[in-house]
Structure formats: C-alpha cells, structure tokens
Amino acid sequence: MPSSITFSGHMIRLMLLITTLLISYQSNAEQAPRLVVEQAAQQLTQRLITDKDKIASQEYYLEQIVDELLLPVVDHVYMAKRVLAKNWKKTSKEQKKQFIVAFKHKVIRTYAGAFKAFNGEEIIFEDARFSKTGKKASVKSAIQRMGAPAINVTYKLYFKKEKWLTYDVVIEGVSLVKSFRDQFKHSIERNGLAKAISLLATEYKSETPTLKMAGHVWEPYISNHLPANGLAVNLVTAVFARAGYQVDMQFMPWQRVAEGLSNGDVDLSVASWYSPTRAQEALFTAPYLTNELVIVKRKLDPLNFANNQQFKDYVSKKSYRLGVFKEFGYGEKFDEIAPLVSLSYYKYCKSMLRDVATKSTDIALIDRWTAKNSLINSQNIADHLEVIPTPLISRGLHTTISLKRKDRDIIASAFNQALKEMKDDGSYDKILAHHNYPQLAK
Question: Which of 69, 131, 382, 414 could anchor a disulfide with 243, C-beta 3.0 to 4.6 Å?
Fold first, then answer.
C-alpha cells in the first residue's frame, strides 16, 4: 500500500503525461475550456524546453515553475476541501490553513517530480462538454504513446469569478482528487486527524529559497490593500519566481527598510531609485519599470514646458513652492531644480495634491501613474488640477539587495536574466496589463 502522503510509482508515471494540461488560464465565459487547456499546455511545455538547463541545475526551480503557472489557476483550496471531505468541518481554522498550505506543496512537489521525465508526448483533445448550467465542463483527451495504448484523460473545470479553473483530473477512470482523499483517509485512520495534518505539513513545505523583501506603502505600486500587493510587488515577486526564489513581503517605513538592508534583517527592497550613495549601501538590479515624474499644477496656472530646461528657465523667474516626498532619491536632475524653488516636503500624495489645489503650495512633482490614480480617487481635488504631459524627470525603478548577502551577485544576475526572459515571452506585459498600467515597457 502506498504511503498516505505520497503517490504510487504508477500514478507518478501517469501524471507526468497529463499534468501539463491541468492549467486553466483566465478566460471569459465565451472561451471554450478545450481551447484554454490546449493553450496552457503549449505555454507550459515551452517553459520546460526553454528552461531545461535551469531546471537541471537548480534543484527547486521546477517547483517554482509549477507554482508560477499551475497553482494560481487551479482551485487547490476547493481540491483540499474535497480531499478532507467530511473531516473539513471537524478541523479548526488554523488546521484548515495548515492543511491547505501543505496540500498546495504536496501538489507542487508531486507535479514537479512528474515534469522531470516529460518527453513531449502528443495529445489529442475532444470538444468540451458542458453541464446544463454551463458553469462546469469536461474535456476528454488521449495521450499518444509510442508502442503503447493511449492514456485517456478527462479534465474537469468550472467557471468561477470570470475564469475557468481545473478542480480534478480523471486518468483512465481514476480521479486524482479521490486518490488524494483515499491516501489521506488511511493516514487519519492510523494517526488521527490532527496528527495526519501535522505530518503532511512537516513533509510538504516549500524548499524554494526565500528572500525577505520589504517596502513602504506607495500606491499604486506597493500596498497591502491592492491586488497582489500592487504592481511593483507583483512584478518583482514574479521575476524572482522565474529566477528560482520566493519572497516574503513585509510593509514598513522606508527608514526601517534602509536599516534592514544595512544590518541584513531585510534581503531586498522592492522599489528604489538609483543614487551613488545608495549604491554603496545595497546592490541594484536592472530597472524593472521606468517612473515618469510629472508636474501637477492648478488649472489656471500658466506654467507649461516642453523639456527640463524650459521648466528651469520658467521657475527661476518665479517663486514657486514645489511639493515633493520625503526620503525620495529624485536624482541629479532634481538637484539642479531644487535651488530654483522652495521645497515643501510631504508624506502622503493626497495631502500634497490637496495643498496644490488650495494654494498652500504651487506645484507637485509626482510619478505620472501615482498622480493619475490619486486624482481619480479625489475628484473634488482633481477638478482644480491638471498634469503637465511632459515628464520632468525619468527614473528607473530597481530592486536592491542587501550587501550582507554573500550571494547578492548571483541573486541580481538571476533577477536580471529572469526579467529579460519575461519581457521576451510576454509574461511581463501581462502583469502590467493586469494592473492597468498605462505605460508600455521600454
């Protein structure tokens, strides 16, 4: 009898042939599940080919691929509930959380082991069959094998929150969810429910290297109130996942981020603008975004400019009060502007824009996307203000790595390479689009 927390060798061999088809990508109701599964198979198998060397050299990188491409679009929480079955209601909130996390890693590790032997088998799909409500579908397929009978596989999907999700796979009439459930049932019978969950959690935990990442709230780039914690966090997390790392994101004031980088309590700062001083304190990766800093002014203010020099010429003849953020490294071009204006320092964007509207300060220097989102959310202030289209300053947005990390150069190189790969294969632009980011990658 197989262990309660491992698949049999027979099941592993079957899974290696079908797991590339488990992924169901986000789609609208009109997209056929068959098309969704076929497209997913193509993308995943391409990654197995292009990242072959990295998979061979980095022990847990394959698990990262599975986590990146499979888990976000498979309802592993629903699967976990079905595996626990009647025992779900008997568990505490903490036990449920523990089981879901362990179950997720069990799925990841099992699939990653299967992927190692993937050999590009041909798969033939049938059209999807829908339930009467149209909310569930099944897609039958046949995996062709040289000199052996085809393996029949049925994918079960359901439509939830505007996307199709896979919730089970049936291989030659055997449900994977049922196999999981039977195995865990045996563990419960031998050890009891609490210990069975504890044993699963002990054996199935992530082995992927974890980096402690920190950043101060800067909407819409960084915030624990935004989807995926904001664009910057989402993007950096995805790039590091491609590079073979997972990150543990923490939110804190910038001063604590800087101190953490200095003493090694923090491995990464999620977002930094380059300066020679900061480069002596941390290692900068390649920029993953470009921030365009623009001037926000009152609508009746005649200020306008087509380039940086025109702005400097104009404000040098006036007595402008310029609102800026505390502790932001605006760079050398800003250092040329600062003596020409009276600086007003702010902690919050909304306060800065409100003061421009009420004439407590004259103009504000803000990232274009930040300004746009702030004005959308403060219509009473936006009615009095406008953004000058020409960017005054452009700043590359980087991740920085603590100099306390002896492997910092390896981490930076892996990040830079993964960032390039994601830009080349389009996954970078998909993240930008998901956050409705208005600027195309340069």
Answer: 414
Does the domain spanning 210-289+396-434 belong to CATH 3.40.190.10?
Answer: yes
Domain ranges of the chain: 9-203, 210-289+396-434, 291-394
In the three-class reduction of DSSP (H, G, I as helix; E, B as strand; rest coil), residue 297 is classed as strand
Nearest Cα neighbor of 426 from 145, 50, 139, 85 is 50
Strand 136-145 with 148-160, pairing: antiparallel
**Per-residue model confidence as pLDDT tens digits over 229-281:** 999 999 999 999 888 898 999 999 999 999 999 999 999 999 999 999 999 99
Residue 287, C-beta contacts closer than 8 angstroms, at least 6 positions apart? 274, 396, 397, 398
Q: Which of 442, 324, 317, 319 is nearest to 392 (CA)?
A: 324
In this predicted structure, which of 170-174, 301-305, 317-321 has the lowest mean pLDDT? 170-174
Is 401:408 a contact under the CB 8 Å cutoff? yes
Mean pLDDT value across residues 47-61 = 81
CATH architecture of 9-203: Roll (3.10)
Rounded Cα distance between 281 and 284, Å, is 10
Q: Under a CB-based contact definition with an 8 Å cutoff, are residues 23 and 141 in contact?
A: no
Please give the class, per CATH, of domain 291-394.
alpha beta
Nearest to 116 by CA among 68, 62, 76: 62
* Distance (Å, whole) CA 344 – CA 122: 65
